Amino acid sequence: MPRGRNKSCHFCANENKKIDYKDLRTLNRYLTDRGKIMPRRVTGNCSKHQKLITKAVKRARSVALLPYVKE
Q1: Helix, strand, or coil (residue 1)
Q2: Cα separation of 49 and 11, whole Å?
Q3: For 20, 53, 59, 64, which has the most beta carbons within 10 A of its beta carbon?
Q4: What are phi and psi of 62, to 5 degrees?
């Protein structure tokens, strides 16, 4: 069975990069075209940073910076 390359966590590689709910450009990278949060196996993030991304996306949605569903 062929295997893809190992994905590394973007935030572990760049120590100076922070996850913030106001940084919409970064958060949009982890959303599908329908507005769903991409899973960890697709993005390649570690579990720590994936949880922080999920929390930031949900916070941005509640403050109405991001839509719940994209049309």
Answers
A1: coil
A2: 7
A3: 53
A4: -70, -25
Q: Does the pLDDT value for residue 70 go beyond 70?
A: yes
Q: Which residues pair with 37 in a beta bridge?
A: 31
Residue 27's identity, in one-letter code, is L
- Specify if 69 maps to a domain: no
CATH number of the domain that residue 54 is part of: 4.10.640.10
13 in a domain, yes or no? no
Overall residue count recorded for the chain in this entry: 71
Residue pair 22/65 in contact (Cβ under 8 Å)? The answer is yes
Structure tokens at 44: 């390649």
Task: Tell me which amino acid residue 2 is.
Answer: P
CA-wise closest residue to 37 among 9, 19, 6, 61: 61
Q: How far, in Å, CA of 66 to CA of 4, rounded? A: 32
What are the tens digits of pLDDT across the range 28-43?
Answer: 999 999 999 999 999 9
